[in-house]
Design a protein that fits this description.
The chain is α+β, with helices and mostly antiparallel strands. It is built from 21 helices and 20 strands. It is globular.
């Protein structure tokens, strides 16, 4: 091996996914690598360029990845030493969707895909790195904070989180593939493919796939004269067929095509080549799925005409969540996807109600509050909402409010049919208390925040976690401004919230045993919502409001942001963020298993390791409690 190749191999072994390969394998790759010197502002590839035959690793310098957004170049990512980018040729056939340009003088290693492909196919760690990274459209989820080198996806879903869901959706494919027998004559099969406008045919015996023939086979084996057209089709078929299950995801399909270097996947009843054919997936199907933006479920929601339609989609969301968790997709990412779909369902429910009632008499905003307002509603829990309409004249007020109450009642009824139960506390827009004008809502928040505790039955902290589902953004912003203006130096309000955050019993007893429900249908179960998750939610809200953090309602993200703005307590916040994810996953797993809210955990069904993990996740709550007691004067409402 020459000195340059040895130097490159030494460099690559320090970064993922190359650190999963042996030095001998790296040396073999390095001998085929091309070194590219890029001057400052020099472009490596740009949007709509034909795909290269290589992907790239930054040896030195900085490469900017950008797209065009609103007629301006928008920076998506910066690639530094050890970062991998330009992987689109691995996964798709359409052109580049972003531009790669040197921010400064840079050296890039161009690794031929043909050289690297066999190592991907034969190394599960490398394949896993690509699968997770490509599926998440982020850096490797296993990377630690200081780990060097990451993979930069070439997929552009710029500021549109809804499109991320396509990497977990099941593919749409042909469920009536062209099928023939092994003894069929090539000429007849070619005629059959032409008449059906098909670029492939499956060779089967008793519906079991034994081979596949594509247009490429016809060109390379028949048109070249290697085989006469009078031969039987089994002479030119590729065998065995690469098979997948019916619900294979886009990311999985892409990686299988990459791993086996094929253009088609055969869908069978049980995912093996020993069961009946159910369909066929082509590279074209992957490209079509990849271009689906903002996602299949979102599109179907927009086309839905009834609660029944929406209910079917919501059931598919539960299936998507379950599969995503099974694939160890980070819960925070799954929550984002679920939130967008839930939001779309709520929005469509409001639209269907408006179609029945006629146009609204005034501008308004429908806000989801509580768990959906925090983007944490993974299960079909109850619905929480408020409705705010713009100020109207006194003469019109009753008429306008009556319309919006009717609208809210229709909408909540639709959502109930979809599967979102009515809030037992009545925290819904259909309640006349929570359907009113902007001025009335301003008075309401002023009262809650400036005279807390005077009418304690009236206040619930869920009203401080909200997200607009339908209507005027400016109305939501007005409420945000009211809250944050009232938050300034409002020690009384934070005293009230601090006591509220500490109102629940401890999750563990003095002897570190779980405090379980003592009576009723959930006897001996652990109330993970009340004793573990809500204290974290309440604590995150308290510190977020007191630090004047705007635009962040999600509990996990609140703790992450608090770790930045209050660095002295960084460790406490980060521990709480991690605990929240772990506890939420326990709840979601329980809920999906029993088709309920997951609030009560059956401890006797947990393994010893799971019990320990659950117990360990409760530890940061004590740290958070001490921090609340130290930060706020919890006297008046104690």
């Amino acid at each position: 091996m020459n000195t340059i190749a040895e130097h490159i191999a030494d460099f690559l072994k320090e970064y993922p996914p190359f650190d999963n390969l042996t030095f001998q394998e790296l040396s073999e790759i390095a001998t085929n690598i091309r070194v590219v010197n890029l001057e400052k502002h020099k472009t490596l590839f740009q949007i709509n360029d034909v795909l290269h035959d290589s992907f790239y690793v930054v040896a030195s310098g900085v490469i900017n990845l950008s797209v065009i957004a609103d007629a301006e170049e928008a920076l998506l990512n910066k690639c530094v030493e050890g970062d991998v980018f330009g992987l689109r040729p691995f996964f798709a056939k359409n052109n580049y969707m972003m531009t790669a340009k040197a921010r400064e003088e840079s050296i890039i290693y161009a690794i031929p895909i043909a050289t690297f492909r066999p190592f991907v196919a034969n190394n599960s760690e490398v394949l896993d790195f690509l699968l997770h990274s490509f599926a998440l459209n982020t850096s490797n989820p296993n990377d630690k904070e200081n780990r060097r080198g990451k993979l930069i996806s070439d997929n552009v879903f710029y500021s549109d989180q809804k499109s991320e869901m396509q990497y977990f959706q099941s593919l749409t494919y042909s469920n009536s593939p062209l099928i023939t027998q092994a003894t069929s004559i090539i000429k007849d099969v070619a005629q059959l493919m032409t008449e059906a406008s098909s670029n492939s045919v499956l060779v089967c015996e008793n519906k079991i796939p034994i081979g596949i023939v594509t247009n490429t086979d016809m060109c390379s084996k028949i048109a070249t004269g290697r085989f006469p057209i009078s031969e039987s089709i089994d002479k030119i078929m590729a065998s065995p067929v690469i098979t997948v299950v019916e619900n294979v995801s886009l990311a999985e399909a892409q990686l299988l095509i990459l791993k086996h270097n094929v253009t088609h996947l055969c869908v069978t009843q049980d995912g093996t080549d020993k069961s009946a054919v159910k369909g066929i997936i082509s590279e074209h199907d992957l490209i079509v799925a990849q271009a689906s933006n903002p996602g299949v479920l979102i599109k179907e929601i927009k086309r839905s005409q009834s609660p029944k339609d929406l209910k079917l989609i919501r059931e598919r969301l539960s299936d998507l969540i379950q599969k995503s968790l099974h694939k160890n997709i980070p819960l925070s990412h799954v929550s984002n996807i679920a939130s967008e779909i839930n939001l779309a369902i709520i929005k469509r429910s409001v639209e269907l109600s408006i179609l029945d009632l006629g146009s609204p008499p005034a501008r308004f905003a429908w806000l989801s509050i509580g768990s959906q307002g925090r983007k944490e509603q993974l299960l079909q829990t109850d619905q929480d909402s408020i409705l705010i309409f713009e100020d109207v004249t006194v003469e019109k007020y009753r008429e306008v409010k009556d319309y919006f109450l009717k609208l809210a009642k229709r909408t909540t009824a639709i959502l109930e049919k979809v599967g979102y139960t009515l809030c037992e506390n009545g925290h819904m827009a259909s309640n006349m208390l929570w359907c009113k004008s902007l001025t009335d809502w301003t008075k309401q928040y002023n009262s809650w925040m400036n005279t807390p505790g005077e009418n304690s039955n009236d206040i619930s902290s869920v009203f401080f976690d909200f997200e607009i589902a339908f209507g005027e953004q400016k109305i939501e912003e007005a409420i945000e401004n009211i809250i944050y203006n009232n938050s300034k130096n409002n020690t009384l309000f934070f005293d009230f919230l601090g006591n509220d955050a500490l109102r629940n019993n401890a999750p563990l007893s003095f002897f570190k045993n779980f405090n379980v429900v003592e009576t009723g249908p959930n006897k001996d179960k652990f109330d993970i919502k009340t004793l573990a998750i809500l204290p974290l939610v309440d604590g995150a809200r308290l510190f977020s409001l007191s630090n004047n953090l705007k635009g962040i309602n999600n509990t996990y993200l609140r703790f992450k942001q608090l770790a930045i703005v209050d660095s002295r307590n960084k460790e406490v916040y980060l521990n709480c963020a991690e605990a929240f994810i772990i506890l939420s996953k326990f709840r979601v797993t329980e809920g999906l298993k029993n088709d309920n809210s997951g609030q009560y955990i059956s401890l006797n069904e947990l393994s010893k390791i799971d019990k320990e993990n659950l117990k360990n996740a409760l530890a940061p709550m004590k740290e958070l409690e001490e921090l609340i007691k130290n930060k706020f004067k919890l006297t008046q409402f104690s």
